[in-house]
Amino acid sequence: MTSAAFETTIDETRDAVVGPWRQPRQMLNAQIYDSHASIHDDATAQKLGFKGGTIEGPTHFSQFAPLCERLWGREWFETGCISAHYRNAVFEGEEVQAILDKPAGGGRRCVIRMVKRDGTEVLRGSVSIGQDPPPSALDIRLTELKPLTDAVILRDVTVGMTTAPQKVRMDFDQQMGKLYPFSLADKLKVITEPSPYYSSEGGSASPWGRAIIPVEMLSVLFQHGAKEDRLPVKGPAVGLFADQEIRLVHGPLFVGEEYRVSRKVVALSGSKRTESLWVRTDAFDSSDALAATMLLNLATLKESYAAYNQEYALLRKH
Question: How many CB atoms lie within 10 A of CB 112?
């Protein structure tokens, strides 16, 4: 007998589906990134103007899963897509709430947002289902990007660059490397929206008869070997997730299953403070079918690259 996916308390209004207030946990303060601490380390984050180590963006995706499952059931886990622009960082101890605007006329796409108690918007984007859904929030955003000019950190990177395929998997007790110094079992102890589908014990009662990987942990799976890609990015420098989309094509993805991943640079963009590398990661299952994709905008803070001003001045001379 299939068990219920979530026990999350959900409020419904005429126009929206709203989740409970949650305090997500920060699990990356020991993360090592380019041989140094990351934006999730308190001291590093404070040097760059943040009040402390930030909670990693995809952690928030878990709070939307029960809302999407309420609307679309099993199809959410098999062909769901969550697409978000991160607007403000969240710090441990802060409460956040997931809000999903109901689709018109039983549609397959909804607008989503997450807010703090004071109304600060944490993220905004879309969720959808189906093999051929309407354009996602990041599909639209990609058409509106400001092109990267006078690149320093990314000057040797070009759109279309690809990486060698890698094999990845996620077991319950597997440590996921320097980028993610914790295991799936560690995450499941503190995940904001637990589900029996995620556990070794409850997975057998899921619709697929085995444990599935939570959507927020797909980000960890896809990024597991990212530092071995050797894209020619200048460093050391500190980056943060600015936009992210996870799309299940033939899902869900399973605990203990091996997948082949490859990455491709699909866009470069910039702002006053950052240079952004947009990479699409494709994950293929054992039959070589595309199982899921992730689009990630890793925005590198110019001020965190020690040689930035010097190299920028030389670039301008030429």
Answer: 25
